[in-house]
Amino acid sequence: MKNPLKTIRETKPLVHHITNWVTIYDCANITRAFGALPVMAHAPEECADMTGISSALVLNIGTLTSEIIDSMLLSAAAANKKKIPVVLDAVGVGATRFRDEMAAKILGSVRVDIIKGNYSEIAKLAGENAETKGVESTSISADPEKVAKEFAKSSSSVVVMTGKEDVISDGNRTFVVKNGHELMGSIVGTGCMAASIIGSFASVNPDYCDAAKDALCYFGAAGELAAKKSEGPGSFKVNLYDEVFNLSDEKVQDMMKVEEL
Amino acid sequence: MKNPLKTIRETKPLVHHITNWVTIYDCANITRAFGALPVMAHAPEECADMTGISSALVLNIGTLTSEIIDSMLLSAAAANKKKIPVVLDAVGVGATRFRDEMAAKILGSVRVDIIKGNYSEIAKLAGENAETKGVESTSISADPEKVAKEFAKSSSSVVVMTGKEDVISDGNRTFVVKNGHELMGSIVGTGCMAASIIGSFASVNPDYCDAAKDALCYFGAAGELAAKKSEGPGSFKVNLYDEVFNLSDEKVQDMMKVEEL
Amino acid sequence: MKNPLKTIRETKPLVHHITNWVTIYDCANITRAFGALPVMAHAPEECADMTGISSALVLNIGTLTSEIIDSMLLSAAAANKKKIPVVLDAVGVGATRFRDEMAAKILGSVRVDIIKGNYSEIAKLAGENAETKGVESTSISADPEKVAKEFAKSSSSVVVMTGKEDVISDGNRTFVVKNGHELMGSIVGTGCMAASIIGSFASVNPDYCDAAKDALCYFGAAGELAAKKSEGPGSFKVNLYDEVFNLSDEKVQDMMKVEEL
């Protein structure tokens, strides 16, 4: 897409989240900094209605409970009906059986357009041998690019594996995004924020693979700019928000480090 | 009131919140920065007891569930009995029927001393035609000053409508506060923080209309000071906390932009 | 212990939290800044499994519900079985009967290795006459050092009382830590963060009394360094994260202000 950021800032899409209690504020705030409007609503009595007025749905199972999963299913069904993109951030899959089962339940019950996770979370979802240390990726034996591509094919979803290099695939096209900075891993929540940004970009771009690739390039570019001025995770996070706020499509154009395989 | 900030800092009132999971930390932290003591407690087994040792109660329905509403009713009843101020931040009213109904349930069951929301939230509560885009105000056809005044009369509450200009009315007096800066809208949570500040000011000033007006002037003044040093929402938020912390009644006195209609 | 920080950063222990919704992000983020890996998971279906792959368990009752207490008991039982340290932050004990009862229930049902609270919270737990103003300590009549020592003996736990001076005792050894800065009290959550740090240090040091003492020295030292550059709670918090991130065992060695009684 040519000017995704400009488009988001002009159309201000509403991005509905059902997410975890750790990074919920940062999911909301980064969505706002990119120019979209975040809303968080998980009550079963209203979640489908809220999705119904939204342009994207972001699900994040970081602090899941069975009740929250039920609300996610209600909202995802509403999103499927409205044909707006559903993003699933599979936080912690590979750490406990409950997470594995609930992620499988979501994927088996509703259409998820974009499945996102770190290397071990996605590998586990894809049926590989993988374990997640809490919510932290461990090294996987399989080749990430192959995992992403094949899982995208078998799931008919866009698959996003985040890490030092991000891999995005829809089964046909596979991109590797090399934007970003190691300080992004020094703060909690950049993974969750990435899912919110992917949801925001997908809300204005029907090519979800392209949207996910753009989202990670833009976020990574902001991270690179912020890192230059930062002395640690505290100042990095402050600068990250400032840089996202002051980002433009033109600025990112010259910074994108993306490769199509 | 002459020196509201000094009074808060000297008496350190306990301000009980039952609020949303997105901005709960900022509600607590801004309350502390103004000199009051925040406490968050929503369990039905204790919420009325916690209200019973508090000097104000702030209710915020940003991520409401029916269980949370039940706790709000228990706490509000305790607050009514103790005659301490109850603030309701009607987040997202006008976005889903559930929010409309739950807000109506609160207003119909207990005494709310100060009803706060953005333009479309309050317009919807007041029976006007209005829709809220998630938790974001949309433009309303009615005149905000008229809405605030009439809704204050009919509800016998102080009504606070926040936006580019804030309107505060108790039905007799109507104030327009023009303090503030657009960067306040660039971060999530300044609306929720405003409700916490109103609760803190109302806990030391029995004239709730005056307290709400002061609260918004003080917060807006801090926002103006912070904006001067900021390059985006990240640095703005840091500076906002510093400015609130370093605020004094004298400093704000010269900055207040308030008009009585 | 000689190099606790280096050890944490090399072994990256997983620290499982069941905590409150106000400061959950800061608990996670400070754990990460010290080099450990935080994970938050409270669903009864998975919390014991998550504890089972962790190296420490931190329980914080800041926004407790009876369901959360049930999850805490499941996780604590798993921690006891695995013989990993359990830290209880007794937030708000002395404010409501429900908190008193739930804290007593935890202490009566499972082994808690480290009991932490502010002066009035611990005094109340220890059976002294004490009241907590929400989650804020009030002055206690008893001698903190005596309370800590005797409660440590009677509970067979390490007891940590935080305040202007921190008192740590295992019943035999009693330490007073004088590191820290008053700006730490200007932001919400430093108490909760201290519990997370204690959990992180205890996960690599079987001498829990030593671990708790070190944790408070290191955190306090970072607070002192951060305060030098800060103009208020906003900049202080940013600098606190940067200083923790850039801390080393060598740096803290020269700053420790600890006394053994």
From TrEMBL, chains A, B, C:
Pathway: Cofactor biosynthesis; thiamine diphosphate biosynthesis; 4-methyl-5-(2-phosphoethyl)-thiazole from 5-(2-hydroxyethyl)-4-methylthiazole: step 1/1. Substrate binds at M40, G189. Its cofactor is Mg(2+). The lineage of its organism: Archaea, Methanobacteriati, Methanobacteriota, Stenosarchaea group, Methanomicrobia. GO terms for biological process: thiamine biosynthetic process; thiamine diphosphate biosynthetic process. Keywords: ATP-binding, Kinase, Magnesium, Metal-binding, Nucleotide-binding, Thiamine biosynthesis, Transferase. Belongs to the Thz kinase family. GO terms for molecular function: ATP binding; hydroxyethylthiazole kinase activity; magnesium ion binding. It comes from Methanosarcina mazei (Methanosarcina frisia). This is Hydroxyethylthiazole kinase. It catalyses: 5-(2-hydroxyethyl)-4-methylthiazole + ATP = 4-methyl-5-(2-phosphooxyethyl)-thiazole + ADP + H(+). Catalyzes the phosphorylation of the hydroxyl group of 4-methyl-5-beta-hydroxyethylthiazole (THZ). Its EC number is 2.7.1.50. The keyword Kinase applies. ATP binds at K116, T162.
